[in-house]
Structure formats: structure tokens, C-alpha cells
User: Which sequence fits this backbone?
């Protein structure tokens, strides 16, 4: 490669290392062009799978501040720069490697740390972010429904203990209920006396009317 082309390639690789959420280095020797296209399709748009030159990749990783083991840069190399969910990408690589033994997963970088092939396989066995969010949403929905049932049961219990409110039969009993419901210190003595005098006044008026009729 000409010097300007090398500089451009290193700059592109450096940016890929910096912006990737995870990076997986593979050996692709034996994979056909068609198989490579299938792998890129399986990885999706958020993962860039590129055939790279080991010397340039080493320089780019250093420029990006990525500690890449020299063992990962042996043989024909291709790098998966993952910019989406690392778990989904790891699953795609694992599943593709099962069907295509020529794809060899060597290791990579995850959360800024070097990871082995075994650790990448462990990552592939985890549930993806979307699945975890769906489970969390389901659990929250179930918890809210349970809380609603508990509150409803408490309401029914309180209503059963307190009983239905009695109908208002007369003004005097209603006034007495108001006095009893209020706190003693909140009701003035004169108010209590006034309420108590209401039935007596009504009784006097009724007695007078009876005597006049007789």
C-alpha cells in the first residue's frame, strides 16, 4: 500500500476502534466471498466486519488506546467492530461459526478490556438487552397489577369494617353526627349547646300545637 493509503486505512481503523462498543478479531481463512456476505448480513448494520492487515491494525489499536494482544494478530485477520448490542453480535458470530468452521474467533475487546474466545462465547450465552428489557417491563407490569389488587382488597376490607354510610333521616341526627365526628377541641361549646337545643325546641313547638288543637 502507498503511504497515503496506509495513513487513511490506519485512521479509519483507529476511528472504528474508538467508536466500537466491542471488538472481535477472527480468522477468516477458507471462507468464500458468499460466506463473508452472509456473515455481514447476520451481524447486521450496527457491526462492521472488515478484512484487515495485521500491521496496520496493530498501529490503529495503539493510536486508539486499545491494548490488543499480539496473539490476536496472527494469520489472515478480519475484525468485527460492534456498534450495537455486543451480546447480539456475539450470538451471531457463535452461530455462524457453528455452521462455518472456517470462521475462527480468536478474542477481542469488551468494555475496554481484553477478552478471550471463551469469554466471548459466555457473552453469547447471555440474554440480549432487548430480552432483558422485555422481562423487566413484564415484571414491572406484574408488580403494578399485584399492587393494584392489594389496594383494592384493602379498600373492600375497610368498607366492610366501616359499613355503608347511614341515610340522613332528619336534620338533628345529622347535626349530632357532625359533632361526634369532629374532634372535641375543634367544636366550640356553644355550638354543641345549640345543636342539643334543636330537638328540645322542636318538641316544645309540637306540644304547643297539640294543646291549641285540644
Assistant:
Amino acid at each position: 500500500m502507498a503511504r497515503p493509503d496506509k495513513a487513511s486505512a490506519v485512521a479509519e481503523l483507529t476511528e472504528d476502534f474508538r467508536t466500537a462498543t466491542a471488538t472481535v478479531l477472527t480468522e477468516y481463512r477458507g471462507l468464500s466471498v458468499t460466506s463473508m456476505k452472509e456473515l455481514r448480513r447476520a451481524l447486521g448494520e450496527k457491526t462492521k466486519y472488515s478484512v484487515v492487515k495485521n500491521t496496520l491494525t496493530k498501529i490503529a489499536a495503539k493510536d486508539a488506546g486499545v491494548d490488543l494482544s499480539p496473539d490476536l494478530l496472527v494469520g489472515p485477520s478480519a475484525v468485527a467492530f460492534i456498534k450495537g448490542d455486543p451480546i447480539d453480535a456475539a450470538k451471531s458470530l457463535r452461530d455462524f461459526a457453528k455452521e462455518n468452521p472456517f470462521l475462527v474467533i480468536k478474542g477481542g475487546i469488551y468494555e475496554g478490556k481484553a477478552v478471550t474466545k471463551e469469554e466471548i462465547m459466555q457473552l453469547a450465552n447471555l440474554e440480549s438487552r432487548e430480552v432483558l428489557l422485555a422481562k423487566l417491563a413484564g415484571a414491572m407490569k406484574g408488580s403494578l397489577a399485584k399492587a393494584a389488587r392489594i389496594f383494592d382488597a384493602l379498600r373492600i376490607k375497610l368498607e366492610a369494617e366501616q359499613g355503608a354510610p347511614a341515610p340522613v333521616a332528619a336534620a338533628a341526627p345529622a347535626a349530632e353526627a357532625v359533632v361526634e365526628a369532629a374532634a372535641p377541641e375543634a367544636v366550640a361549646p356553644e355550638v354543641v349547646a345549640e345543636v342539643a337545643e334543636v330537638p328540645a325546641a322542636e318538641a316544645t313547638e309540637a306540644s304547643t300545637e297539640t294543646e291549641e288543637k285540644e
Remarks:
- DSSP finds eight helices and five strands in the chain.
- Strands lie at 22-27, 47-52, 77-82, 104-110, 113-116.
- The radius of gyration is 40 Å.
